[in-house]
């Protein structure tokens, strides 16, 4: 299984079980050039099951070569993984008893190697905050990613990226001209699909994300 993988630097580690069950597993170095993909750039994610051949590089370090799926097939590259998701989206809002529709959403924004971005913003008391989030939060994800040199496509890195983006956007909002006079706010629910069918969620406020196979 993949223990870690830094997509930006192109290397990580996979865990190899020993033939003797009493021996501890060995973490083995893997470089992106050793990953056999159908097309495009290599995509490995934490916890992903793979097969590989043990080897030793020129420095004497044990490494993994010919990294494939457990069945021996080439792994999907980043572009193929996104295409395999076969994303179909539907959005619907209900104004309820409010004088105006204060909810906003963003769907299917392509954030490159980060993934495909979806978000819902439930405005409270106005639309200023929800409008700003719908226009800029996904852009801030990419801006903040550039400031995280060790970012990689893993659950921990995605959590740090979204947390940093939420905090930065909140500070950005409070500095906007006229914001002090605006007495509204918004919840925020974000889900990013990055080549896997399980989304990476982030939320602020009284919102929930439900995932189901249909």
TrEMBL record:
Q: Name one GO molecular function term.
A: nucleic acid binding
What the entry lists under Pfam families is as follows: CSD, PP2C
Q: Does the keyword Lipoprotein apply?
A: no
Q: Which residues form the PPM-type phosphatase domain?
A: 88-214
Ranges for the CSD domain? 1-69
Which PROSITE patterns does the record associate with it? CSD_2 (PS51857), PPM_1 (PS01032), PPM_2 (PS51746)
Keywords of the record: Hydrolase, Metal-binding, Protein phosphatase
Top-level taxon of origin? Eukaryota
The name under which this protein is listed is Protein-serine/threonine phosphatase
Say which species the protein is native to.
Answer: Cryptomonas curvata
